[in-house]
Amino acid sequence: ILSLPPLLLQTPLRGWVVPRAHVSAKPARTPTSPMEQAIGLSVMFLSFLTPAGWVLFHLESYKTGSTK
């Protein structure tokens, strides 16, 4: 049985650097207005729901295999 020195086993583990998240307990420098929040949420919802709505609207044509 081959015995490896402990240094060979520990060296690769030292190279792993885990990035730390920059978390701040301070409030935002520039607060987001309710209008900006509403616009942002609307864009997010539309970006997810539009493709799903397109597929559901054209579901019958997908089943029949026709393109129109």
Automatic annotation (TrEMBL):
<comment type="pathway">
    <text>Energy metabolism; oxidative phosphorylation.</text>
</comment>
<dbReference type="InterPro" id="IPR003205">
    <property type="entry name" value="Cyt_c_oxidase_su8"/>
</dbReference>
<dbReference type="InterPro" id="IPR036548">
    <property type="entry name" value="Cyt_c_oxidase_su8_sf"/>
</dbReference>
<dbReference type="GO" id="GO:0045277">
    <property type="term" value="C:respiratory chain complex IV"/>
</dbReference>
<protein>
    <recommendedName>
        <fullName>Cytochrome c oxidase subunit 8</fullName>
    </recommendedName>
</protein>
<dbReference type="Pfam" id="PF02285">
    <property type="entry name" value="COX8"/>
</dbReference>
<dbReference type="GO" id="GO:0005743">
    <property type="term" value="C:mitochondrial inner membrane"/>
</dbReference>
<dbReference type="GO" id="GO:0006123">
    <property type="term" value="P:mitochondrial electron transport, cytochrome c to oxygen"/>
</dbReference>
<comment type="similarity">
    <text>Belongs to the cytochrome c oxidase VIII family.</text>
</comment>
<feature type="transmembrane region" description="Helical">
    <location>
        <begin position="38"/>
        <end position="59"/>
    </location>
</feature>
<keyword id="KW-0496">Mitochondrion</keyword>
<keyword id="KW-0809">Transit peptide</keyword>
<comment type="function">
    <text>Component of the cytochrome c oxidase, the last enzyme in the mitochondrial electron transport chain which drives oxidative phosphorylation. The respiratory chain contains 3 multisubunit complexes succinate dehydrogenase (complex II, CII), ubiquinol-cytochrome c oxidoreductase (cytochrome b-c1 complex, complex III, CIII) and cytochrome c oxidase (complex IV, CIV), that cooperate to transfer electrons derived from NADH and succinate to molecular oxygen, creating an electrochemical gradient over the inner membrane that drives transmembrane transport and the ATP synthase.</text>
</comment>
<keyword id="KW-1133">Transmembrane helix</keyword>
<comment type="subunit">
    <text>Component of the cytochrome c oxidase (complex IV, CIV), a multisubunit enzyme composed of 14 subunits. The complex is composed of a catalytic core of 3 subunits MT-CO1, MT-CO2 and MT-CO3, encoded in the mitochondrial DNA, and 11 supernumerary subunits COX4I, COX5A, COX5B, COX6A, COX6B, COX6C, COX7A, COX7B, COX7C, COX8 and NDUFA4, which are encoded in the nuclear genome.</text>
</comment>
<keyword id="KW-0472">Membrane</keyword>
<comment type="subunit">
    <text>Component of the cytochrome c oxidase (complex IV, CIV), a multisubunit enzyme composed of 14 subunits. The complex is composed of a catalytic core of 3 subunits MT-CO1, MT-CO2 and MT-CO3, encoded in the mitochondrial DNA, and 11 supernumerary subunits COX4I1 (or COX4I2), COX5A, COX5B, COX6A2 (or COX6A1), COX6B1 (or COX6B2), COX6C, COX7A1 (or COX7A2), COX7B, COX7C, COX8B and NDUFA4, which are encoded in the nuclear genome.</text>
</comment>
<keyword id="KW-0812">Transmembrane</keyword>
<keyword id="KW-0999">Mitochondrion inner membrane</keyword>
